Amino acid sequence: MMKDIESSGNDVFRLFIETAALAIVTSAFLLVAAASAAEGAPSFACKGTLNSTERAICGNGELAQLDTRLAGEYRFRHQDLRRQDRRYLRLDQRDWQRERNSCGGNFDCIRTTYQWRIEELVEWDL
After folding, report:
1. Residues 27 and 47 in one domain
2. What secondary structure does DSSP assign to the chain, as a single string?
3. Is 107 in contact with 60 (CB distance < 8 Å)?
4. How many structural domains are present in the chain?
5. Which domain holds residue 34?
6. Residue 10 and residue 47 share a domain
7. Which end of the chain has the lower number of beta carbons within 10 A, N or C?
8. pTM for this structure?
């Protein structure tokens, strides 16, 4: 009788380990798939009517990554600001977007504009 309980306990433990291992492998696969899909994707949809700057960002992995990083910095800063300061940040971001869009499809101009804005947001006084 004791041997049956011990054997049953081992089977349950083995099933638990196999299930946990499968869950870990599945999670890792999904993370890799999500990272691959997101790699090189900007923060905006690359569909519909795009200006030449947006088309350049959609067509270049480095620019897309800069766009995604900038969007993250913007959200981080925006969430912790008071209402009046959020308004100022939104207006400042729109001004920056106009400046970025004046680059047209010029890779160096777009990259420099993004690098400057990311640095500005990182150093933003909260």
Report:
1. no
2. -HHHHHHHHHHHHHHHHHHHHHHHHHHHHHHHHHHHHHTT--SS---SS--HHHHHHHT-HHHHHHHHHHHHHHHHHHHTS-HHHHHHHHHHHHHHHHHHHTTTT-HHHHHHHHHHHHHHHHT---
3. yes
4. 2
5. 1-38
6. no
7. N
8. 0.67
Token digits for 94?
């729109």
Q: Are residues 67 and 80 in the same domain?
A: yes
The tokens 């519909």 sit on which residue?
48
Distances (CA, A) of 6 to 13, 80, 82: 11, 56, 62
Tokens of 48: 């519909």
Write the single-letter amino acid at 121.
L
Residue type present at position 126: L
